[in-house]
Design a protein that fits this description.
WD40/YVTN_repeat-like_dom_sf, glycoprotein, elongated, disulfide bond, 6 helices, 50 strands, membrane, 5-stranded mixed beta sheet, semaphorin receptor activity, mainly beta, 7-stranded antiparallel beta sheet, 699 residues, single chain
Length: 699
């Protein structure tokens, strides 16, 4: 639908393009919506211009006055509507070779640059400056008088100087060219990306102004009248640049030094990998391309198949509904959309609808296995991500669909990375190339990991490690250096934690590993390292009855693990009953640590007359490590001593008595025997457990 321009902003810029005089202006089409339009005013009259029409590709309709030939000479139509934004306030222009570069100021404090080729086709917008405070630029913008390498903008009470390009940030010929900046070119003699006026007596390699190219090299295939396929490579460089070219894997040389010939019969069905090398003096550019076999692109005629055919450099035959090789006489259709739009109207699917994107906030490293929920998603093939001024959107293929109800469906995909923070529009692609929906995701700073708590673990693994840092909600998993195992991350009281895997110790008896946070297809390394130590050594235990409860003290060799009571699990089995020992505390010393816990509700514990309480087994678990005591060695030793002490003492006394008897003289011996016969007994003391007695008799 055509839109009448209702208001004109304060300033416009004229530029001569050969015999044409171009005029660029900012216009308001609707409240809150502005556009930049370029007009050819070469033939304009001096009479008042009554109105404008924004031409969106089709011819603008004639008004009633135009139809009646009353004001035909007063109607001015734009040569192109080149930019649309909600807050443009000013515009100015520069010419560089055959390029026209427009600069826009916005109400939000942005200075935006857009380059246009000879056909007024725009390149990608670039933000040259952002005030960060949302202050509006004043309408007038001026260029530096010498070489116009900077632009001056007025904002508030200050004048700001901004370079029109930053060529020096590009370090290679390929990067310099790929910037698609008409001000920047590769100065061959200096091996630097420079402004043209800074590169004298040297080739200056830049983008040609004849058309907007997206790649520094183009590769084309043409089938001759026979069965040969001629592949030709060409660099997209400005005129007059000397270069050499080489193609690998050729069957035979082609008609030029940048071409080669293949037999269509030997052309692989899966395609042919080819390496193209272009040399500009000392600079070498290499590109690996996959040439598709046009005869192998087969299937039901659809918009998607047609686009695949055209994108491969082949020709789609509308008469035969098939993909064929391009020939020298093939019709030169300008875009694949022109050829394939015939199929868009006959596709049978319902328009997809996005209800939600999860997550909708990610780090600049992206996210794996994101989910879109919506309706009618079965026809979606890709997910597209695009900024407001991004002419090179990123696309991610759909990994899986789930749900078959029109009220609730979902699809899984990966969110790609990007270099800067900010919001991006998300839409879903259908086979006809249309993108549906207008969801939003926000890119934020990457996560950081500043601390591990604790910084140690044991060899058997299973210890929970807490992560401290920023933006940790973006972390998908954790891994240790030297391992490919992805460890699941979960939250405990809002803090991200993970459980350590088992580790192998080195010859020193320990081992250090780096902890890596997995974010998208990138890993972020924590600042602190994790140290593996041997498993804790629990040596013995004792039990004590305390009222109706049982206290257990477990001895453990001192180590560097710094165990917490919450990490130790103690289970007790007594007869047919099992009990959990509730942790009380851990008492530490230089040699031995004591783990103290208490069991309540033990059956018949009140009937035990001894201070200690007998148990069948005691199991101590610490993460992935456990030790089982069948009975306490120290308790068994104590019970044996209590039981056998009186017997041992009696035996010792008997031995002592017999020894003394043998050592006495006969007279004394007779007296002793007489005493024995008189039943004078030697009594033993009574023990604390039972009363024992013994006598030493002579024969």
């Amino acid at each position: 639908m055509d839109t009448e321009i209702t208001n004109t902003y304060w300033w416009a810029k004229t530029q001569k393009r050969e015999s044409a005089i171009l005029w660029a202006g900012v216009f308001q089409t609707n409240p809150g919506d502005t556009v930049v339009a370029i007009f050819d005013i070469s033939r304009s009259r001096t009479a008042h211009v009554s109105g404008f029409c924004i031409n969106r590709g089709d011819a603008c309709p004639l008004s009633h006055e135009e139809k009646s030939n009353k004001i035909t000479d007063k109607v001015l139509r734009p040569a192109a509507v080149v930019f649309r934004n909600s807050s443009i306030t000013s515009v100015t222009a520069l010419k560089s070779n055959s390029w026209i570069i427009l600069f826009f100021g916005t109400k939000t404090g942005l200075l935006i640059k857009v380059a246009f080729d000879e056909s007024l086709k725009p390149g990608c917008p670039t933000v040259l400056y952002s005030s960060g405070e949302g202050q509006t630029f004043l309408p007038k913008m001026l260029f530096a008088q010498v070489n116009a390498t900077a632009i001056f903008i007025a904002q508030g009470n200050q004048m700001i100087k901004v370079p029109v390009a930053r060529c020096g940030v590009y370090q290679t010929l390929g990067d310099c060219w790929s910037a698609l900046d008409p001000f920047c070119g590769w100065c061959v003699s200096q091996s630097r990306c420079r402004f043209q006026h800074d590169c004298s007596n040297s080739d200056w390699v830049s983008v040609p102004g004849t058309s907007q190219q997206r790649d520094i090299m183009s590769v084309h295939m043409i089938k001759s009248t026979g069965q040969d396929i001629t592949v030709t490579a060409a660099p997209n460089l400005n005129g007059g640049i000397r270069f050499s070219c080489a193609l690998e894997k050729c069957d035979s040389p082609g008609p030029s030094n940048c071409s080669c010939t293949f037999s269509s019969e030997s052309f692989p069905a899966e395609g042919l990998s080819l390496r193209v090398t272009i040399t500009v003096q000392m600079e070498t550019l290499t590109k690996d391309v996959l040439l598709k076999n046009c005869s192998s692109i087969r299937g039901r005629p659809t918009s998607a198949l047609c686009i695949e055919c055209m994108s491969a450099g082949c020709v789609w035959s509308l008469s035969g509904d098939e993909c064929t090789w391009r020939s020298a006489s093939s019709e030169n259709l300008t875009t694949r959309e022109d050829v394939c739009k015939h199929y868009s109207s006959v596709l049978n699917y319902t328009r997809p609808e996005i209800l939600s994107v999860t997550p909708d906030e990610v780090s600049i490293h992206g996210r794996n296995s994101a989910v879109i929920k919506g309706r009618n998603l079965e026809s979606v093939t890709k997910v597209r991500f695009q900024r407001n001024m991004d002419c090179n959107p990123k696309e991610s293929p759909v990994l899986s669909h789930s749900g078959n109800s029109s009220s609730h469906e979902s699809l899984t995909f990966h969110i790609p990375s990007r270099t800067v923070r900010g919001a991006m529009r998300v839409c879903v692609l259908t086979p006809d190339g249309q993108c549906h929906g207008n969801a939003k995701i926000t890119y934020d700073s990457p996560p950081t990991c500043s601390r591990l708590k604790p910084k140690t673990t044991w060899a058997s693994g299973g210890r929970e490690i807490s992560l401290e840092g920023s933006k940790l909600e973006f972390v998908e998993a954790v891994k240790h250096s030297g391992s490919s195992e992805h460890l699941r991350l979960h939250r405990r009281n809002g803090t991200p934690v993970y459980s350590t895997p088992a580790g192998v110790l080195d010859s020193s008896g320990s081992r250090q590993v780096s902890v890596e946070l997995l974010v998208g297809n990138t890993s972020v390394t924590c600042r602190e390292e994790l140290t593996y130590h041997p498993d804790p050594q629990f040596t013995s235990f004792t039990t004590t009855r305390i009222g109706n409860n049982m206290r257990i003290v477990i001895q453990k060799s001192a180590d560097a693990l710094q165990l917490k009571g919450s990490e130790v699990d103690v289970q007790v089995r007594r007869g047919a009953e099992s009990y959990r020992c509730v942790m009380d505390r851990i008492e530490r010393s230089s040699d031995v640590d004591s783990v103290i816990c208490e069991v309540s509700g033990v059956t018949d514990v009140s009937s035990v007359t001894d201070v200690s309480v007998a148990v069948d087994t005691l199991t101590v678990r610490v993460g992935g490590f456990s030790v089982v005591f069948q009975t306490s060695d120290s308790q068994l030793y104590r019970n044996v001593l209590i039981t056998l002490a009186p017997v041992v003492l009696c035996i010792l006394v008997i031995i002592y008595c017999c020894h003394r008897r043998k050592a006495r003289p006969p007279v004394e011996l007779e007296a002793v025997e007489q005493a024995d016969r008189d039943d004078r007994a030697v009594r033993l003391p009574v023990t604390t457990a039972e009363s024992y007695s013994c006598r030493c008799f002579s024969n």
